[in-house]
Every structure is written in C-alpha cells, then in structure tokens.
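Archive entry. Fields below.
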Amino acid sequence: MFLYNLRLARMSLMKQPLLTTLMVSAIGIGVGACMTILTFVYVLSSDPIPEKSDELFAVRVDSWNPESPYDDDKPEEAPWQLTHTDAMALLESDVPTRHAAMRKAVYTVVPDNPEVAPFFNVARMTGGDFFEMFQVPFLYGSGWGPSADENAENVIVLGHETNEKVFGGTNSVGKTITLGTEIFTVVGVIDDWQPHILFYDMNNGETNPVEDIFLPFSITDRREINGAGNTNCWKDEQIDGYFDLLRSECVYVQFWAELNSAEQKAEYQRWLDNYTEGQKALGRFQRPTNNRLSTVTEWMEVQDVVEDEVMVVMSIGFLFLTACLVNTIGLILARFVAKGPIIGLRRALGASKAAIFRQHLVEVGLVGVAGGVLGLILSRLGIKGVQQLLSESDNLAALNLDLLLITFGIAVVSAIVAGLYPTWRVCQLPPAGYLKTQ
Amino acid sequence: MEFRPILSAMLRNKTGSILVALQIALTLSIVVNCMFLAKQRIDHVNRPTGMDVDNIISVRSMGFGTDYDHDRTIDNDLRLLREMPGVISASHSSGLPMNGSGSANGFAGSPDEDASRVTANYYHVDERMLDSLGTTLAAGRMFRDVEIRRADNELLNRMPQQVVITQALADKLFDGEPALGKRMYDGLGESAEVVGILEHMYGAWVGWSDFDQVAMFPQRTEGPHIRYIVRAEPGKRDELIPLIEKTLADSDRTRLIRGVSSMEETTRNSYEGDFAIAVTLSVAVGLLLGVTGLGIVGLASFTVRQRTKQIGTRRAIGARKRDIIRYFLIENWLMTTIGIVLGTVLTIAINYSLASAFNTDQLNYGFLVAGMFMLWLLGFMAVAEPARRAAQVSPAIATRTV
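PREDICTED_STRUCTURE:
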C-alpha cells in the first residue's frame, strides 16, 4: 500500500514540475537557513567534554573590590579568574581528586637545528593534573608528575605541531628544547586534541586553539615569565614588575578541580569558604563570601558562550522557516484543491477518506524528504559560508549525525505539518460535486 | 474597476488569500527587522576611526636571546623603518588600536580620594605617534622626544609626567571644561599634565561603549615586547609589509619579528562578528524575497490556470484584455495590502520582543516604510507575468466544455 501511494505521489508530483520545484525549494531554503544557524548555536552550546563535565569545576573565589562587583551585568558572580596568591593557596588543598591552576604565557622556541628559524608559541602554564583531569590523549610519553610541579622543574609537554617543527614528528620524549634562554626536557607529546570550546580558559577567546606547549604552573611562581591573556585589577596598588604582580589583587589565573561526588564537592566548598574566611581576617575578601564551583556547562553559561547576537539570528532563522512553510502550505493547498475531480472520482469508486488522507500524506512526506535533502546541501554551503565570514577553523561546526537527523526531521515534519491542513481539506471534498463537472 | 467582485471572489477562496497575506506579512516583518539589524551593524563598523587605518602597518617584536637589549633594538628598528622609502612615519607603541587587546585604568580629574574615576584605554607611545596613526590634535602639543622614557628608566612603572588624551576623555575627566594644562590623576595619587588633546581616535576594543576614551603616555614598553606602528604612503602598504618583515628580521637575531600586517586586516578581524551578522541577515532577506516572490508567481499562475474558463467567459461577454490584467493586479494588490497591514503589526511585535529579550534597538520606522514599498513592488512583479498570460486566454475557450 505504501509503495502504491509512493508511486501515486511521484506521478502526481512529476505532473507539475514547476510547482513541485517551488515547494521543495521553499522547504529546502527554509530548513537550510535554519540549520545553518542551529548548527552554530548547537556547537557553541554543546558540552565539550560530556564524559566528565559534571565532575569538573571551574573554581572561583570573590576577592574583588568591596565597592563594586566584578561584572556589573552579573553582580551575583565571583570574578572570572583568581589572583596568583589564591591559586597557590588553593593548590594546597587535598580535597579534590585532581586540580590545576593555569594561565597563558608566550615563549620563543629556539630549535637546536639552525635551519629551523626560532618561532613564537603560546604556552599553557598548568599543573601535571591537567592532562588526566581533561583526558588529554598522548601520542608519546605522558604528563609530568607531582614532583615536577613541586620543584618547578623544566619539563614540557609538546603539541603535535611544535613536535613536528622541532623534532620532525618523531618521539621526542627525553630530548631537550630551548625556550628563550631556558632548556626544557620533553616528557610527552599530545595527540590531536581540540575541544570545540576551549572550556578550561574562556577568558581569552573560547574558540581559540589549544596551546601547543605546556609547562608547570609552579615555574610562574619562581621565575619571571611573559604572561599573556586577560588581567583584571581593581585595587590601587603600586605594581613594580613581575613579582609585584604575583602578590597583587589582579586576577589572571584559571583554576579547575575534579570532584567526583556531591560529598566531595560539599567538602571542597567548605574548604574554600574556610580559606576565604581566614583571608578576611587578613583584610582581604571584604565582599560577602561568594565562592563558586561551576561545572563545565554552567561555566559556559556564565561566560555567555552563545552570545545574544547569535540568539537574535536564531530567532530570525525560525521565523524564516515559518515564512517558507506558509509559502509551502499555500502551494500544496492550491495543488490539492485542483486535484478535486480526481479525488472525487476515487472516492466515488470506493476509496475511504482515510485512504485518501494516507495517499496525500505520503505525497507531502515525499516533498519533505526532497526538501530535507536540498536543505542539507544548502546548510552545508551555509556553514561553509559562515565559517569563511568568521574565519573559524573546522573544529567549529562539523555537521554531526545528530544535526543531520535533526535537519531531516525538521524538513519532513515541517512538510507534513504544512501538508496536514491541505490534506484534511482534500478529504472533506464532497465527491459528487466534482463528478458532475467531470 | 470594481473591488466588490474581486473581494467576493477572494472570500470564496479564503484560505488561499489568507495564506498569501500571511506570507506577505511574515516576509515584511522578517525583511524589515533583518534590514534594520544589518544596517545597525554596518553603521557600527563604519563609525569614523580618526586614524588613517588603510595605510597603517603594525609589526611586533619579541626579544628572547641573552644578548637582547630592548632599548638598542628599538633604536635600531625605528631608524631602519624611518629610512625605508614609502614610510611616512614610524613609532613604537604598547599596542595597536582596534585590535581587541589593550590596557585600561581608572583616572580622575582631581586628586580627591572620592573623585569619580573614568576608565580610559591607554598606550605607551613615542613623540611621532600622531603622524604614525594619522590622528590630529584639537589643542596643545604632542610629546617632545626628550619626554619619552626609555625602557631602562627606573620610573617606568610610575605615571609619566605628560599625557595626551582624546577630547572624549577630557570632557569626562574635567566635566567639559578646558583640559589643557590640567593634571590627570591615577588611583595612587600620581598625576600627569595634559599637554595635548586629540580630536578623536579609537581605543583597543571596538565593542566597548567608551571606545574613544584614550590616553597616551610618553614611554617605551618594559620589554621584551614592542610593537611598531608604521604609516605608509598611499598605495605602498602592501609592498612594504614583506620588506619590513625581512629588514627587521635580518637586522637583529636576538628577537623575533611577527604579526606584520595591515591595520585594515586587524580591524576587519575585530569587526568579523558584526560583518558576519550583517551578511547573514542580508542573505536571509534576499532568499526570503526570492522564495516569497516565486511563491506568488506559482500561486498566481495556478489560479490563472484554474480560472481559464471564467476568464474566457468574461472575455466572451466583453471584458477587454486590460480588464483581465487589472483584475489580477487588483486582486494581488488587495492581498498584498492586507498582508502589509498585518505585517506592520508583526514587524513591531518582533522588534519589540527582540528588544526586550536581547537588548536590540528600537526600530527606525523608515525601514518599515521601505519594506512596505519593497513588498508592493515584489507583489506587482510576481503577478505581472501570470496576469499577462491570463489576458491571452481566448474568448473561444468559454464556448468549449472541458
């Protein structure tokens, strides 16, 4: 029966190619435009580390200005980052399963091979726990151990690219590399790893690439480095050079903790509150106690990863789809009404209303599938276009299976929704009237 | 021509007419809102910068070797840059305006502890910076070269003695009173004399509402980073970029030259989001007008075919070709107009809900009027061909049965 309906539908659609093309393109364009936007919103808002995101917490303590909140638009929030002092203190806690303080820095890599020119590199200064906590895949070796953190040892984990440039892509574990004037020993080389949102540091561009070298955070405490990334200060204090900045109230350190259970989280929260209570006695933390543990997705929300502009465009995208659907309804209706005589004939020959309804639903469904295919092609083009405009790398918005199914679903469902009323109308046609004129 | 028969014909096919009107209404509301939002983005991008953006090149240098000497490198680099043919002016600077990264601090116009502070974006620059940026002074003077503190100056972390500020910042600091010769204070009670006022220039962040509150201090960066701002003669920019990179890189091996690029390119990156939204919305407008237009063509051709017999009958009893054409034009005009009325309400509603949900601006009604005319024109163009075809129906058709 279904196949028979399908054949009828095909015949009927082929009979009026212009109208059919119009219907399919209206749905296709609507779905294509909508999906293009939806893809970006979906990718921006989807969880970058779903296996663990509920156990990873961005840690913040409110060390900000007693006079005013960190962000006037979100006065209930603590500052996005920590002071160096607080980060070092938090690292003393043994409550979290793993934890890491981190910040960005820049280094000049000076390869031993004189033929390779020195090059600039962005580094992440972080703890050895970083790699296990965020499940970073390794090509060679592994992250460094706690002793390297404690002693601020000159160890380094390389990204793919730097390992390629300096060591020709070979296993470089145990070899040394010069950064500026210092020599570091390679302990690991990470495999391709690029969360679509750089969730662990959204202060400095949330779609930035992962840094290509990693060094112990404790180095920043002992030796002067070239820090990079956003630094925010509120206090009037004289800052003379690097070590003054370390002791200042300026915030520029990100901090993450892995807490595997609600009890552990509660205990850590108590630990933090306790710590800031102690600091209050020293004259710091004069704001109401506001220490925050946010999961990855909560943290993305606080950081407004999906900006209002994107939401505006998305609302317009849905309106756009609606307009295309109304267009399709009009066209389907006109077609079906014109089919009155044939339907009258079929009804007179004994076809039930249900059979007529099914037949036309199949026809509309077919339009939907064709529109879906077109929409899919158009959304691929749209995504390419928007990527071009935003000069984004491919890590954003590679169309995945979920979205593929959603595209198709939207197309077919919207075609059927668009076709439901016309189909219902067709079934209401009294057979006799049409037979007469025949 | 009589509206009544057309209206009653439309009322007989209510659903069809309602759908066309609804389609027009939705199209109008989307098109007007998109055009409005896109125009706002474009206006945002096109605000006057106060700088010669098209001819500026930016270069970054980062020292790394043990032999690196910040002051010596800057001296050499500036000499090399200023000697290059095609270079109008070259300066060192702590940053490049409009590139999205910079420093800001709170300043006040008086030493009182509770004086209100104004946040300003500040740069550390040299005496030729105005020439290098192509900005102009409204009053006072630029720094003298003896005033520029070198990187080895012990007071580098203290506020310099002179400052040049934009008019916008001056107005905020001194409540619109003449600022020249007054002192600007930081939170530690140190101060600098305002020696010059800039007419206008952009700071680092194009999205910041106080983007034009900028201050310049006469000193070098602490190192090992430094940036050079080079202004090229018109048309020389692109040939200078690779030349500058090579000349500087070859001259000194104790540092790294990177990011040699035109300010135009950097600025384009800063505005990328605005630009992307403007383009996306414009494409949406184009596509939607296309879909709606073709939809009307489709429906109208279909109606014409459906009514072949009636048209033949009307022609047979004396209607002229232009009466038939007029019939379809008026019918379409009626539906379009109903749609436009509906659409006007919808447009305002959408604008209102976007404004309350996402803080977008209130609609400029000029866009609504433009949108109305656009849709009237679209409706007319879409129905013209089907109507012309309807007029070709021969009166003899009426005498034939199906």
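CURATOR_NOTE: The mean pLDDT of chain A is 88.
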